[in-house]
Amino acid sequence: MSTDSQAPQAQSAGAQGAVVVVAGATAASGVAAVRALRAAGATAIAVGSRTGHLAEVFGDPAHDAGVPQFACDLADFAAVQRLSADVSARFGAVDGVIHLVGGWRGGGTLADQDDADWDFLARGAITTLRNTSRAFFDAIAASPRGRFAMVSTTTLARPSAANANYQAAKAAAEAWTRAMAQGLAAVQSARKEGPLPQTSAAVVLAVKALLDEGMRANSPERSFAGYTHVDALAARAVELFADDAAAVNGARLDLTA
């Protein structure tokens, strides 16, 4: 977070009219984010790995009221660069990225943490985040309300042997996101010469685990204590656009229910 108390601050206009990329849009959390952004008046752009799956979830993108959709391998930096260029060319600007790509692998002892699980987690949690943040950094920094948000885990405070792969990957992703926050401050409020208002922010949203209605239907006997509903996550992601950028840049927000 910026420590330059002399830098001017900017008032955010909220999500109304913002162009926001939702990475991992076909997951339950992504669907909730797209829905919440659209309800707030934003243009939500659904990004997933397969064109067919995107259309199954969000309908025909050619329809007048359809959700704009882009298929992209977010682990391929060149592909993400093309995505950034295509979205910017079509919509004129990009105001935010909500990164919801990841997944979970765990269980067993420390010795049971195998390479296949690590490769899966590193690709989903770290590589895709590195690529999206680099490809969209300039657009987010140029926006009057630029936001980048990722989802992490509250369990990093007490890592376990059984979840070592998962927690190590999330810790790396968090560190990268905080580095992005410093980069945004460096070109705005923390500029050495002529500080600008801090209009952009990179934020970590931390949860114990996510909950959706499908999970409730499959396990009606469970309380899911401490879980964060995907709708609550989506609502907080939308609220980021109304938050003061200087206050939330580099923040780790605990959304544990």
TrEMBL record:
It comes from the Bacteria. Keywords: Oxidoreductase. The keyword Oxidoreductase applies. InterPro entries: NAD(P)-bd_dom_sf (IPR036291), SDR_DHRS6-like (IPR051122), SDR_fam (IPR002347). It holds the Pfam family adh_short. PANTHER family: DIHYDROANTICAPSIN 7-DEHYDROGENASE. Belongs to the short-chain dehydrogenases/reductases (SDR) family. This is SDR family oxidoreductase. The lineage of its organism: Bacteria, Bacillati, Actinomycetota, Actinomycetes, Micrococcales.
